[in-house]
Fold each of these.
Amino acid sequence: MTFGRDRTVLMTLAVLVALLGFCAVQFPFVLSARVLGNLLTDHAFLGMLAIGMTVVIISGGIDLSVGSVLAFTGVLLGVLITNQGVNPGLAFAVALAIGTVFGAVQGAAVHLLRAPAFIVTLAGMFLARGACFLLTEDSIPIGSATYAALNDTALTLPGGTRLTLSALIMLAGVALTALLLRRTKFGANVYALGGDRRAAELMGVPVGQTTVGVYAFSGFTAAAGGILFSLYTQSGYPLAAIGIELEAIAATVIGGTLLSGGYGSVIGTALAVLILGLIQLYVTLQGTLSSWVAKIATGALLLLFIGAQRLLSLAPPARPGLSIGNHHGAPDQTPSIGQAP
Amino acid sequence: MKRVLQSPAAAPVAAMLLVLLIDWLIFPSFFEVRLVDGRLTGSFVDVLIRGAPVALLALGMAGVIATRGIDLSVGAVMAIAGAVAADAVAGGTHWSTAVLYALAAGLACGLWNGMLVAFLRLQPIVATLVLMVAGRGIAQLITAGQITTFTDPSFAALASGTVLGVPAPILIVAVAAALLTLLVRYTALGLMVEAIGVNPRAAELVGINTRMIILAAYALSGLTAALAGIIATADIRGADANNAGLWLELDAILVVVLGGASLLGGRLSYGLTLVGAVTLQALKTGILLAGFPPQMGLIVMAMMISVLLVVQAPSIQQWMQRRAVRGVAS
C-alpha cells in the first residue's frame, strides 16, 4: 500500500486522532473500548450508505437516492415481517434484491439516457420516498424474535470490547469493498471511468456495465444500511433518515474521495464516518451545545478537506504513483454536475 | 407554426398548460379569481402565492445553472436570511432595515459560494455543499436554537399584504424576474453567462471575465434565496432554522430543468423558469385537489423527471432531428 496514493486518508486519520484527543481531554472515558464500539454500532447504517456512495463518487457519479432506499427498506421489512409474518431472513433477501435492482435501473438510466446522475437519482429519491408512503404512513414496530437475537449477537474481543453484529457487518463491508476496488477488474474499471470517461471507453472499459454495476452496488449497500437501521430502531418509518444522503456524501468527501471522481478510498470514508459520529458524541456529552455545532463543524471539515484536495492536486506529483486522478484537480472546467456527459 | 413548435419555449409551456388543464378538469373552478376584501383569491392565485419562494430560488438557480454550476445552498441561505430578518424585527428594528440585513446576509452567502467556485475553482456541487451543511447551523446559531417569532405587521405584510389587490409574494416574484430579465437581456451579461455555460474556455479566450460573471451569478442566487427566506419568514411570522427552505434546493433545480434549461449550462431564460415554477406548484396543488395524500406528489415528481430525462436524452434528440431532416427532404 503506497501512502502516496492515500495522502488524503492520512489526513482523515490525523483529524480523527486529533478529535479523539480533544474529546479525551474533557471526557477521558471516550477512549474506552466500549464507547468506541458503540460509536461503530450507532453509525453502522451511515457507514453502509457511505461505502456505496464512495464507489459511486469514485466512478464520477453521485447517488441522492440512498436515504430514501434506506427508509423504503425499513418500511418494507416492517410490512413483510410484522404485517405479513414473513421470515426475517427471506424479508432481508427481498429487500436487498429490490435495492440492487432499483440501483441498477438508475445506473441504466444514467448510461442510456446520458443523463446527469444528480437528476436521475433525484427522481429515484422522490420515487423511493413516495413508495414508502404507498406502503404505510405510520411507523411499523418490528418485534420479531429474530431481531432481538440479532441485536444480542456480538463478538467479544480480548479486553472486553463488544463488537455488535451491525458493527461487524459494517467493518466487513468496508474490507470487502476495499478489496473490490483495489483487487478486481471491476474496481479498476470504476477508477478508470471516474478518471476520464472517454479515455476509459477507448481503453475498452465496459462503461455501460460498470455504470450499472456501480449504482446497483450503491442500491445494495443502501438496502443493507436499511436493514441495519431497522435493527437499530426496531421499526420501519417512511420519514426515517431524511437527509442522510448528505451525511454520506460529506463522509465520502471528508474521507478524501474527490467528488469529481477517479480518486478515493473506502477506508477513508469509514474513518470519516467515525469523525462525524465523534462530533455528535462530543455535542451530546458537552450537553450545553446544540445541534448547530455539529452542522457547522461538519461544514468546516468539508471545507478543510476540499481545500486540501485542491492544494494537493495543484501541487506537482511528488512520486510517479501519485498520478491517479490528479489531472482532475487541474483548473479546467469540466461539467460540474455529478457525472460528465 | 413550425417555428413555434421548435422554439425552446414550446415544451415547457406545453407542460405547464397540460398540468393546468388537468387541474381545471379535476377542479372546474380552478381558474375562478374573485376579489374578496380588496384581495384577489382563488385556486390559481393560491398556486402563484405558494410557488413564490421556490420561484425566487429558481430565478437565482437559473443563472447559476446557465454557467454550468449548481447552488445546493439556497435552502440553507433561505434559513439564514429568515433568521437574520426575524431576529432583527423581533429586536425592534424597522422592517425595511431588517429586509436589508437579510438581503446582505444572502449576498454574503452568495459571494462566499461564488468565491469558492470562481476563484478557488472548486466544483460547484462541492463548493455549495459546504454552505448547505453548515448554513442551517449558522441559522440556528442566529436564532439560538429557538423559533424566533415576531408580530410586526409591516414585515408580515411582505407575505400576506396586497398592492392593488395583488398579493405581495406574486408582485415580488414578478418584479424580481422583470429586473433580472432587463439586466441580462439589455446588457451583454446574458450572452456572456450563456457563453460560459456553452464553453468556459472559449468564453475566457474571447475576453470574457469569467470569474467575475460566475461570482455575480452566485451572488444573485444568494440574493434571491434571501428574498425567498424573507417571504417564508413573513408568512409564518417566525424563523424556523431547522425547517425553513428544507429540501427546496431540489425543487428549485427541478423548476429550472422544467423551464427547459440544460443542467450542462448555456441556456438562461427567467420567463421560462417562472413557467417551470408554475408547472411544479400547479402539479402539487392538483395532487391535493384530487384528494391524494401530499406524499403522492413525490411519485408524480419522480415520473415527471423521468419523462424530462427521456425527452432530453441525446439519442432521442438525434432521432427527432433525423426525422425532422427527413421531413424537410421529402
Amino acid sequence: MICNRNESRSSSSNNANVPPSVYQTIQNIKSDIKRMRELMNVTPSFPGTVFLLLSPSIMAMHLYRWSFYLYSKHLHAAGRLIWLFNHYLTGADISPESIIGPSCYIGHPVGTVITGKLGTKVSLFGSAILGGGCRDESDIGGGAGLPLVGNNVFIGVNTTILGAIRIGDGAQVGACSLVLEDIPPGKLAFGNPAKVRDAKPIDYEKVAGITTHE
Amino acid sequence: VFLTPPLLCVFLYRLAHLLWNVNARRLARFLAWINFVMHKASISPASKIGAGLYIPHTVGIMFHGIAGDHLILFARAVVAANSINFDISNHPEAYPVLGDGVQVGAWGRVIGSLKIGSHTKIAPYTVVTQDVMPNSIVFRGR
C-alpha cells in the first residue's frame, strides 16, 4: 500500500510535477474551510464564517496555499514574502516548498513546522514538527531527507517527525512522540522513539456523555 | 534574506548582547523582548554565544548560558538553568556551558549547571542533566 501511494496521490489536485492553478488553490482553501467547519460543527452563517476565516488555523493554511502557488510559479521572492508574513502572524513555519493536499487541518499553528509532502485530510495538532534533512539526504518523494505523509493521517500534539520516512494512509501518531521510522498504513504509533501498535477505533457510543451527531 | 526569522533572530540577539556588554541593560532586555514577541524565541542577552549561531526554526527556542562557535539549535531546543531566579552575571556556574560545534536536536533540553564538550550532538527529544564528553552523541535508549 505504501508503494502505490504515489499513483493514488497523482489523482489528487496537488501534484509535485504540475503546479496548481488559481482555481485549484481556491478549491483547496475552500476544502480547508469545509473541513474546519465539519470539525468545529460551525453552521455556515455570516459571523461564523468571518471568525473561521480569521482563526489562525485557517489563516495559516490560506497563506500557505498562496505562497505555494506563487512558489510553484517560480515567483520565489513573493512566495517567501507570504511565508514570512505567515510566520510572523500565526507562528506556523510552513515552507512554501512543502506540498500539502486539500482539506488539511492545523489545530493550533503556533510552533508548527511543516516541510515535506502531505496527503489529503491530514490533521495536525499543536506545534507538530515535520522535517529533518540532516540525518540522511535520501529522497522518497517529499524532498531530500523529508517525510512523506499519506492521506487521513492524525498527528498529535508536540509530535516530531524527522527524516525521510513514510507514514501510511490512515495512520495515527500519538501526542509527544518522536517518529524516526516508517509507520505502516492504519497503525497507531506513540512514544519516544515511537513504537508501532494496532490502532483501535474509538467507539463513541460506549463513551458516556459524548454524542458525535444529533 | 535578512528579514527571514533565522537570521533576524540571531541579529537581534547579537545587538542585545552588544548593548548588554556596554551596560545598556534596559535596552538589551527590550531588544530581547522584541525578539521574543517577533520570533517566540527567548534568548537571554546575558548569554554568550560564539560565531556561527544557526536557529532554523525560532519558535520555542530558549537559551540562557554560554556556548562556543557554530552552535545549532533546532526547533524547540531549550538550554537553561534549573531556576530562573539567578542572574548570569552573579551565578555563571548555574548555567550550562556548551563547547564548539554543538547541535541540540528538536525538543532537546539541556538543563542545569553542566558542561557539554565540543562537537557533541544531542538527539531530538533528549533531556540532558549531566556533563557530556566531547565528540559524543546523546540519545535516549529504547
